[in-house]
Amino acid sequence: MRSEIGPTVSLAVTDRSDFEALLRPILPLAFRYAVRLTKDRDAGTDLVQDASVIAFRSFHMFARDSNFKAWFFKILLHRFYRTKQREARQPSVALVDAPESYLYRQARRLGLTMNGDPVAVILGQADYQMVSDAMGRLPLEYQEVAVLHFITEMSYAECAETLEVPIGTVRSRLHRARRMLQVSLWEIAEQRGYFPTQESI
Amino acid sequence: MNLNCEETYQRMQDYLDRELSAIEMALVTEHLIGCGICAEEFEFEALVLRKLGRTLLDTDIPKDLEERVLTAISNA
Q: Is there a contact between A45 and B70 if contact means CB atoms under 8 Å apart?
């Protein structure tokens, strides 16, 4: 689907080559991030396409010695929020202040042996949908940073540049997002009957 | 300077993300070498994060994604 995103400007062929060379390697990451944001593959594809066109038209403003990935993801996020208002009603959230390494503590509580792969016992059936559902329970600002960090493996500084927030905010949101995510995963596992009972261990 | 378990625990996420200074990374590593309890917890957390990251990356990329994007750019 082609979308209307503004007037056409012309850029030199060399600019296009440079742009494409920078863009190609991050397209898979951009797609995965866009799908997480939009929760839809087609919408994710459209978002990446639109962001790419906008970035290309703005490429003359990109400082060549700066971080293209952070610059592009910033554009992608802006495009996402421009087309989709932040949902007024935030998803239900386990905004409890769970401890760090919540799943580890649950594993210990269940008496799981740490030999072998205890994570597989707890998260063995955690597929994309389950992780996605757990992520979806987090407030959007926590999802943004958690998914960005998980998918792109950006540093805190790069995430801060992309999201236009201080590094300290990235750090605190990311850490809290991970705690909430682990609580959500545990709850979903319980709801789906994946809960590793004492008898099944 | 040595870190105790609590001080090490407080640095877990930053350590796993390699966001500590070189000195602090070394201090945490030193503690983990000598403390099996903390080492076990760090290893578990690292496995959880790796599992979550791999799962979120488990999305098929459309075969025509690059072609669509490049075509859109050339038409821009």
A: no
Nearest CA in chain A to B52: A131
* Domain harbouring A160, CATH code: 1.10.10.10
B65 contacts A48? CB cut-off 8 A: yes
Task: Supply the range of the domain harboring residue A189.
Answer: 102-200
Q: Which residues of B touch A155 (CB under 8 A)?
A: 17, 19
- In the predicted model, is pLDDT for residue A37 greater than 90? no
Per the structure, the count of domains in chain A is 2
ipTM higher than the 0.95 cut: no
**DSSP secondary structure string, chain A?**
-----S------HHHHHHHHHHHGGGHHHHHHHHHHHHSSHHHHHHHHHHHHHHHHHTGGGS-TTS-HHHHHHHHHHHHHHHHSPPPSSPPP---S-PPTTHHHHHHHHTT--SSS-HHHHHHTT--HHHHHHHHHTS-HHHHHHHHHHHHH---HHHHHHHHTS-HHHHHHHHHHHHHHHHHHHHHHHHHTT----GGG-
Q: A128-137: per-residue pLDDT in tens?
A: 888 888 888 8
- A79 in the same domain as A108: no
CA dihedral A30, B47, A119, A147 (to 10 degrees): -20
Tens digits of residue pLDDT in A49-78: 999 999 999 998 888 888 999 999 999 999
Distance from CA of A137 to the nearest CA of B (A): 15
Q: Which amino acid type is present at position A17? A: S
